[in-house]
Amino acid sequence: MSEKIERSIEELYRDDPERADALAFGRKSGPNRRGFLGGAGLAAMSAAVGGAIPFAANMPGGLIPAAMAQGAAPPAPPKGPIYLNFPGKNDKLVVIGERPLVAETPEHLLDDDTTPYEKFFIRNNGQIPDEAKEPDKWKFTVEGEVNNKLELTLGELKSKYKAQTRRMVLECGGNGRSFYSPKASGNQWTNGGAGCAEWTGVRLGDVLKAAGVKPSGIYTAHYSADLHLSGDATKPTLSRGVRLAKAMDPDSMIVWAMNGKPLPNIHGGPVRLLIPGWPGSASQKWLTKIVIRDKEHDGPGMTGTSYRLTINPMVPGDKADPKNFKILESMPVRSIITSPANGTKLPAGTREVKLRGASWAGDFTVKRVDVSTDYGVTWQPTKLEKGKNRFDWQRWTTAVKLPRDGYYEIWARAMDSRGLMQPHVAPNWNPSGYGGNPMHRVAVLIA
Ligand SMILES: Nc1nc2c(c(=O)[nH]1)N[C@H]1C(S)=C(S)[C@@H](COP(=O)(O)O)O[C@H]1N2
Ligand SMILES: [Mo]
């Protein structure tokens, strides 16, 4: 895209925004269409500015984004969002995959301290099993490098082990994937492959101790009841595992309740794993078996470029060398702005906007969250809460002053307890797009 075209579109927006809208989006501007841009308009806009629009789905009409994202390659033309239609779920969750069903939560719907069931994202790799009729009779086994193979029903798990409840973030390993350029393959998550719920269950470590892990046992392998997408019952859908030390972490759990209610079927009920801070895929839903292994697990989702990051940084878009990948463990630091929503219009004369958000950092905590209203030229700190327990997200608030009417982007960036901060762009390109944690940006218009 030449500079000349970008400039001329900017000029056009400056001089006659309504005509620019009509030109860029092929439809008439006016009071009724102002608000939010749909699919075709976004594609045209992306093409016109020669880069991905950072907050693509809900951009206010009549505007040209002042800050363009990275990347010279034009993004694939975005389709309009498909909203989820699923029992009990909020109808503003966005479907990012229909088969298997995958849906994300727009950032502004993550404004509750505890994410309710209705807003919690959904990620499946295979077919969704039918709901268990008698949950307490659900069985799972613990076997492999153990002294006593266990077979437990959910009822026994509840009665024999000490229960605990923790509010913890569950985040898909691919969260943020859509921010990669060139495009990384997989579900195109923005920031909404995450939620923070109250999980009740027992320590996975207590169950493993009861099974008596042999000194040779160093890794877990998780199995479940969901059918492979093909319907082939001999193929596991997904089978991931973690290092034994992570499995023994007192916050790694086998859970049966979410927000005080029996774990819903869509979230893996009656029984799932909850391995906080690590890719959501380690948190096997519909758990039927844990095998303790004497080596790293090699089930579907453990090999090739799945849930793996590069060892030596690779050229973006190049062919991957499978030997150059290591397993993604702790998720990277991320913060989101949960209020205002992207695309909010505020009355002319508004000079202060209150912001709210959330932040989390895999196995670590968040040390600070800063916000900018001037494309990162200046930053101000926010008031950051601690979180109820380990792996809870940390809510933050602040108010920003906006000097005049007009278009603003609000950016937020978090820094973890090690001093690692969110980058401006999705870092360390890899073909399946893990680790994409660029700063979250929302657009607001004071007019
Ligand atoms: N059995 C099973 N467990 C699974 C999956 C799956 O497809 N099958 N998907 C995993 C992935 S990739 C994620 S991100 C989380 C999503 O959990 P949720 O659907 O409850 O939000 O479940 C994990 N556990
Ligand atoms: Mo995931």
UniProtKB/TrEMBL annotation:
Gene3D superfamilies in the record: 2.60.40.650, Oxidoreductase, molybdopterin-binding domain
Keyword Transport attached: no
Domain of life: Bacteria
GO terms for MF: heme binding; molybdenum ion binding; molybdopterin cofactor binding; sulfite oxidase activity
Listed transmembrane segments: 36-57
GO biological process: sulfur compound metabolic process
Span of domain Moybdenum cofactor oxidoreductase dimerisation: 328-444
CDD domains: SO_family_Moco_dimer
Cofactor: Mo-molybdopterin
Keywords carried by this UniProt record: Membrane, Metal-binding, Molybdenum, Oxidoreductase, Transmembrane, Transmembrane helix
Chain ranges of the Oxidoreductase molybdopterin-binding domain: 127-299
PANTHER family: SULFITE OXIDASE, MITOCHONDRIAL, SULFITE REDUCTASE
The protein, known as: Molybdopterin containing oxidoreductase
